[in-house]
Write a structure and sequence with these properties.
Elements (H helix, E strand, L loop, with lengths): L13 H41 L3 E3 L4 E3 L4 E12 L5 E12 L2 E8 L4 E5 L3 E6 L2 E7 L7 E7 L2 E4 L8 E3 L2 E11 L2 E18 L4 H5 L5 E10 L12 H7 L3 E11 L2 E12 L5 E10 L1 H9 L8 H11 L7 E8 L2 E4 L2 E5 L5
Helix pairs in contact: 4-5
């Protein structure tokens, strides 16, 4: 009897193994790249730290570890303390920096357990909150893009430190990027955006007074001229060399809200004097300005010239709740509204 069943065809097993071999080779190659990247990151970090130490910085930290294989590079820096020659610095139980392994040109740095800010001559402030992070990208450009953000931060001055102006906020944001003219990056200019949302002043302080125990919000943008001079951080601070070289803020625009008072602000140019304090004129179109000025006059802060603020409040009382155009002058180290000195001018260094 003839067997009509066909003999089964034997397929070569090498064809089935080929995809697994290819994946294995790709994984081995990627793993090699990841470990090379991790080594480069740690080496460059240590080189940069040593360079800063030679320039007078004080930097200490525990052992650095890099994890995140296969798709991320996560650098953990425990017990980090960074102090610039100017006396300003930060410290954190841990700083964590992360980047995609395939794009190490953009980093996100977080402080998961909060920060301690050191202010030269003013003492330390503890900063907590729901999120403290900074991202930086385009590292090979002249001015990288930078974004720092604090989500619901709280500020607590240490016992021997000067009080901090605000106690908390809903959000604080700072962004910098190269200034573009017709889509092309300017030679030595940088755009800056600062946003403060629903900040509460410390008890008895000028912010609490100006807002009448309400909240302060600010949205301000400007262009920094001579931005390359901001790279240095000597004992005088980051703005000292910039100021000496003629650096200034131009195209200043923004909006302020202090309690029930609001103002649209603008200035063609602001700079710093030799004492580091802001100088120039700031135009305001204000709504209900008397509430903020009279609240400032009633604050218990020693920095506020309460007599000057009371005089300014009386001078603006005639406007009532109507909008009014005002000019704030920063000169001689003071902040002036007309002939009335309100407080020291903001200090940049």
């Amino acid at each position: 009897m003839t067997d009509t069943h066909p003999t089964p065809t034997r397929h070569p097993r090498r064809g089935l193994a080929a995809p697994f071999i290819i994946v294995g080779l790709l994984l081995a190659g990627w793993t090699g790249w990841w470990f090379y990247l991790a080594t480069q990151i740690e080496t460059r970090l240590e080189t940069r730290v040593e360079s800063l130490r030679q320039d007078g910085w004080t930097i200490t930290h525990a052992d650095v570890t890099t994890t995140g294989w296969p798709f991320r590079a996560r650098v953990s820096i425990p017990h980090a303390e960074i102090l610039a020659p100017s006396g300003h610095g930060v410290a954190a139980p841990e700083l964590v920096a992360e980047a995609n392994a395939w794009n190490p040109d953009r980093w996100v740095i977080i402080a998961p357990d909060g920060l301690t800010l050191t202010r030269a001559g003013k003492g330390k402030v503890g900063i907590g909150g729901d999120g403290l992070r900074m991202s930086i990208s385009h590292l090979t450009d002249r001015f990288p893009d930078l974004r720092a953000e604090m989500i619901r931060p709280t500020f607590t001055a240490h016992g021997d430190a000067e009080p901090f102006p605000i106690a908390s906020a809903e959000r604080i944001q700072l962004e910098t990027r190269p200034h573009l003219t017709d889509g092309i990056a300017a030679t030595d200019e940088m755009d800056v955006l600062f946003r403060l949302v629903d900040a509460r002043g410390r008890p008895g302080g000028p912010v609490e007074g100006a807002t009448r125990q309400g909240r302060l919000s600010a949205d301000i943008e400007a262009t920094v001229v001579g931005a390359s001079r901001l790279r240095g951080m000597d004992s005088a601070g980051v703005f000292a060399a910039w100021t000496a070289a003629g650096g200034r803020f131009t195209r200043v625009r923004g909006r302020l809200k202090a309690g029930d008072s609001t103002a649209v602000i603008s200035s063609d140019a602001l700079s710093a004097g030799r004492d580091g304090r802001l100088q120039g004129a700031l135009a305001l179109t204000a709504e209900k300005p008397m509430a903020a000025i009279s609240g400032l006059a009633g604050s218990r802060s020693g920095a506020v010239n309460r007599m000057g603020a009371a005089g300014a409040a009386a001078a603006t009382a005639a406007s009532g709740d109507r909008g009014v155009d005002l000019v704030v002058q920063f000169r001689d180290g003071r902040t002036w509204l007309g002939p009335f000195a309100l407080a020291p001018a903001p200090r940049l260094f």
